[in-house]
Specification:
Elements: H1 3-17, E1 24-31, H2 35-40, H3 43-56, E2 60-68, H4 80-93, E3 97-100, H5 106-116, E4 119-122, H6 123-134, H7 138-164, H8 175-213, E5 219-224, H9 230-238, E6 255-260, E7 266-271, H10 288-295, E8 299-305, H11 311-326, E9 336-341, H12 352-356, E10 362-364, H13 373-384, E11 388-396, H14 401-409, E12 411-418, E13 421-429, H15 430-439, E14 445-447
Parallel strand pairs: 1-2, 1-3, 3-4, 5-7, 5-8, 8-9, 9-10
Antiparallel strand pairs: 6-7, 11-13, 11-14, 12-13
Helix pairs in contact: 3-6, 6-7, 7-8
Length: about 450
């Protein structure tokens, strides 16, 4: 990124859009009348989630404020009286930033900052800032940067109004307006540049994804609310050491590993970015590679934190995001197992059966302790639904490479070298059987079950 672009983002808008470690924040939520949301989430519960986001960003919580309104105020989002109250709290508590639990319009953010005299950051900006801190791969960094710039563009217009008022008189073009037009042009150029780079990166990802699909291994995608233990479960099932941390959005880049089911079938398990209520729409395309992992999966594992309240609300939030953002109306979703994790942290008197009673096709586990992982594997095998066939092979030596293929794609129970043939007893999935038959002639393959 050019130096003048850095200057633009940090000095003109970036200071308003970013939070920094050790800043003190006041959280603000507006309790609006949304019947469906009111049943699933209270404003207080939603603010707890905002506090977790702030903690992930390293921000200290100085206070929380909730205002009940029928509609947002068009000028400030909250009422003028609440604006004055927050202004006094900022002085009293030494707060640096006001975090709003909803997305603000550009003019509302500007009006609030001018009236309160503190930095204003909304929920969307906070989530994007966390994503920017945690993106590891070059593609993920570009995707987050693109989302930030697209969010920034209308904010330039909003903040620019105060500059445009300096424009002199009617019919004149003042310095503020010229600067604003120049800033817009810089941002648009950067957006176009990032999109071009991402198109190239997407082609490379498609090639890798195609190779994975051609491996003929079933794909299971780990999805679910953020910080439910998806990476821990991937590590436990596959024996890998993926990055894990007790913070929201610890994993942003997709990670795929292989593991084995009880019937010896090999499965690819893919970790994905955590979902969250009010996930910024700008960030949906920012993680197409992660979301494509879910779209191309044969099975979804929706991981849920069994220690949290409102489990059904979180389950419905994940389903809503899947239906509205990841799978379009014409695309059939793969089957889904709901996995209630962290049962090792439940109170001793908590009945596990009560957790799964209201959530269909579910199993309760502890990914970190290994509790009920065998039960989960059995359920995965059932949901994948691919019958495993036992076979006998009589391979001539010029087809010995098929034995290696069977070792990699199925199970070899016995192999004997007799005369001019290799006699093999093994197991293979039904969907691979036709591929094997194509390579063999009559008498070389016998189906036993």
């Amino acid at each position: 990124m050019a130096e003048d672009d850095l200057h633009l983002i940090e000095d003109r808008v970036g200071k308003r859009a970013r939070v920094k470690a050790k800043e003190r924040a006041i959280l603000v939520g507006v309790d609006l009348t949304y019947p469906e949301e009111e049943v699933l989430w209270t404003t207080n519960e939603s603010l707890k989630e905002l506090a977790s986001l702030a903690k992930t960003a390293g921000v200290k919580i100085a206070d929380k404020i909730i205002q009940r309104r029928s509609n947002p105020d068009p000028k400030f989002y909250i009422g003028k009286g609440k604006v004055d109250e927050i202004k006094e709290l900022v002085k009293e508590l030494g707060a640096h930033v006001i975090l709003f639990n909803d997305e603000l319009r550009p003019a509302q953010a500007r009006n609030l900052e001018e009236s309160i005299g503190a930095k204003i950051v909304d929920r969307t900006q906070l989530i994007m800032d966390i994503f920017a801190q945690r993106a590891q791969t070059k593609e993920a960094k570009l995707q987050v940067e693109l989302a930030q710039y697209e969010y920034l563009l209308p904010r330039l217009r909003g903040w620019g109004e105060s500059l445009e008022r300096q424009a002199g008189g009617i019919g004149t073009r003042g310095p503020g307006q010229t600067r604003l037009a120049r800033d817009r042009e810089k941002v648009q150029r950067r957006i176009d540049s990032i999109r071009a780079k991402l198109e190239e990166a997407e082609k490379e990802l498609d090639v890798r994804r195609k190779r994975r699909l051609e491996s003929n291994l079933p794909i299971v995608a780990l999805i679910g609310y953020t910080n439910t233990g998806k990476t821990t479960l991937l590590n436990s099932l596959t024996g890998s050491e993926g990055f894990k941390e007790d913070k929201l959005f610890a994993t942003l880049d997709p990670l795929t590993r292989k593991f084995e089911l009880p019937d010896r079938r090999k499965v690819l398990l893919t970790d994905t970015v955590g979902l969250i209520r009010k996930l910024p729409h700008q960030l949906i395309p920012a993680f197409k590679s992660t979301l494509k992992s879910a779209r191309s999966a044969d099975l979804l594992l929706n991981l849920m934190d069994a220690t949290k309240e409102k489990l059904e609300a979180r389950w419905q939030t994940v389903n809503r995001i899947l239906n509205e953002e990841i799978f379009d109306g014409n695309q059939q979703r793969p089957p889904m197992i709901n996995v209630l994790n962290k049962i090792d942290l439940l109170d001793p008197g908590k009945e596990i059966a009560s957790l799964t009673s209201g959530i269909e096709n579910s199993v309760a586990i502890s990914a970190i302790e290994g509790n009920n992982l065998d039960e989960l594997k059995d359920l995965i095998a059932v949901e994948l639904g691919d019958e495993v066939k036992e076979i006998k092979l009589h391979l001539p030596y010029d087809k010995a490479e098929i034995l290696d293929w069977l070792h990699n794609n199925g199970e070899v129970k016995t192999e004997e070298y007799k005369g001019e043939e290799i006699h093999i007893v093994g197991k293979i999935e039904q969907h691979l059987l036709s591929e094997l038959k194509y390579e063999l002639t009559d008498g070389e393959l016998e189906e036993m079950t």
